[in-house]
Amino acid sequence: MTGALRSFDKHQAEDERLRVELGPRSYEIVVGPGLIARAGRLILPLMRRRQAIIVSDENVTRHYLAPLRASLAEAGIAEASAILPPGEETKDLAHFGRLVEEILGFGIERGTMLLALGGGVVGDIAGFAAASLLRGIDFAQIPTTLLAQVDSSVGGKTAINTRSGKNLLGAFHQPRLVLADSDVLKTLPRRELLSGYAEIVKYGLLGDREFFSWLEEQGEKVLSLEGAALRRAVLKSCRMKAAIVTADEREAGQRALLNLGHTFAHALEAETGFGERLLHGEAVAIGMVLAFDFAAALAIAPREDAERVRRHLGSVGLPTGLSAIGLQRKAERLLAHMRLDKKVEEGRIALVLPRRIGEAFVMKEAPARELKEFLDAAE
Ligand code: ADP
Ligand code: ZN
Question: Mean pLDDT across the stretch 295-305?
């Protein structure tokens, strides 16, 4: 056995696989170390044609394009790559237009596999390209941020931004395979890692009290990328999201629970301009604390639970209040953003609120006066 093969086998033993059951659109998520180096062999059985187009961004390319290309070549897969600038600004119509023209220029067919190598931005724009090119081609995701591994790689949502708002142009398009390589997180900045961690905590808060307790004890191990703890957290998050998505692929009901903390978070992101100033997961951390505090103020959830949530998120270094980003006493502005949310119907602000840690529900119409008073006073 060659050295390369031996390490292939060694790593394979650490892989965990999760099947997302969506009938003919079912697919597997593989979580484990060294997956990029094995990507070619893992993807090949799903390919209808030995041609792959890699879509990535400049940062991710620097670290991982060469190993991915090598692994495709080793499996006899022809490839070409389209590299985008990093950042949310990339998810616009202009970049999308250039991207699809470039990919069409490579001479693709229906059986061509698009590979999204990157974080949520790459996953979203590449996924939407795959959904629309030739009315839909196959794609696989190799999420390289913790956020993308636990969130955007499950669910099949793809989208780009327009001048009217975020993610307003998109499609549901499921990947054929997701490879969540734990090794790539080593180059991810701590702040981006924490941003993904907030979404992991969300799964405990919305549906699994024991998982949240486990995170209180083991969260630091996840954040220091200790193999077993990290795999457990990623897998658990994907499993919970997959269960919810399977029950509700097109977001009719239960899937809304995934928005715990997000109505507040989107308002905070809109107010801070969707950029570096406040990362998505940081906004979600504050949003979840607000959801627990508001539920406590309405006497729906116990105050102790709200305190526990604030304590844990704060202990790992996530922001937990409006003052952390200078947005206290901006209730009117935040409410204005909340009323513009995609999910608002006839002016009613729906909120996902907790009953306790591990249990959430959708409140179809949040009481307007209480919400205003709450945000006025929130620190
Ligand atoms: P998200 O997945 O959080 O939505 P992005 O796709 O915007 O985010 O990625 C966040 C930033 O991290 C981008 O600048 C991206 O280029 C960079 N990045 C993504 N994955 C890695 C990685 N594994 N190592 C280093 N930087 C990365
Ligand atoms: Zn989110």
Answer: 98
Q: What span, in angstroms and rounded, lies between the C-alpha atoms of 126 and 132? A: 10
Domain with CATH 1.20.1090.10 in the chain: 190-377
Q: What is the pLDDT of residues 359-368, one digit of tens each?
A: 999 999 999 9
How does DSSP assign 152-163, residue by residue? Answer: ITSS-EEEEEET
pLDDT for the residue numbered 8: 55
| Contact (CB, 8 A) for 173 and 126 | no
Q: Which CATH architecture has domain 2-187?
A: 3-Layer(aba) Sandwich (3.40)
What residues does CATH 3.40.50.1970 cover in the chain? 2-187
pLDDT band at 2 (very low <50, low <70, confident <90, very high): very low
Ligand 1, from 36, 60, 151: best to mutate by most atoms within 8 Å of Cβ?
Answer: 60
Pocket of ligand 1 (CB under 6 A): 57, 59-60, 63, 86, 118-122, 144-145, 147-148, 184, 187-188, 192, 195
pTM, full prediction: 0.94
Which CATH topology does 190-377 take?
Dehydroquinate synthase-like, alpha domain (1.20.1090)
